[in-house]
Amino acid sequence: MSNIYHKIFVDSSYDTAEKIELLKKHMYVRAKPVPYVKPVVVIEEKKPQSSIYFPDKKDTLFWCLYVAKNGIHEYEMINQGYSNIEIAEKQKAMAFIKTQPSKLKNTNVKVTNVAIQEIMSDIITNTTLNVSTLIAMSLFYKRRIILTKDDKLYISICPTDEYEQTLILHKNARGDYGVETDVTEEKIKRIETEQYCLHRHDKPLDAISNFSSDELRKLSVRFGVDQTKKYKKAELYQETTIRCLW
Fold it and tell me: Terminus of the chain with fewer CB atoms < 10 Å: N or C?
């Protein structure tokens, strides 16, 4: 019995430093505590929501007016029959103007009798409203309408009588219009002070005789006309006009 004990526990004993070293791979080693690192929370900065709403129907000018009058929710609740609503509303506007066409002269935009007939025809026959027909819509809805483009240009169509509200419509690069859903006096003032007010959409600048050469030069700089070229006054006027086309 002692021989068996000796063979198992003595002959195979790990009684030297070298032999004990061989057992290290089988030993439990208490792991070193990992220091706590506070997790870094990355807060994603929210982009400010745009207050401009772009209707998804073809006649964006008309539907901007509709949204301004009735609200986005009312517009988005229309599941079908968009065209019927559009036609009916345009007919109401034309009927309003037809009974008193001279009212079209009661805005800040000068119109001739011929232009009045064209506007009345365009409201019904054209598939989309244009800036000229907005003269009639401005009177019909009793709204001042400001149209802006590229944060550089704006047109103001305003009844000479009292109006109930100011609308701001934005024209994008595709030619579609969006309506400002949060019109404030500050936004109106910013447009009026920072952007250039066009004389008319189809004739953006006043007559050349109303500009001195220095005024015209400053305006041409503002709209990116090449200043390295030498222009006569009429040429500079034309180059500037091209850059102000609506």
Answer: N
Instruction: Please check whether residues 74 and 57 belong to one and the same domain.
Output: yes
193 and 72 both lie in a single domain? yes
20 domain-assigned: no
Give the model's confidence band at 43: pLDDT under 50 very low, under 70 low, under 90 confident, else very high: low
Domain membership of residue 4 (yes or no) is: no
pLDDT in tens, 92-147: 999 999 988 988 999 999 999 999 999 999 998 999 999 999 999 999 999 999 99
Residues 142 and 244 in one domain: no
Which residue range forms the structural domain that includes residue 214?
Answer: 204-246
136 shares a domain with 165: yes
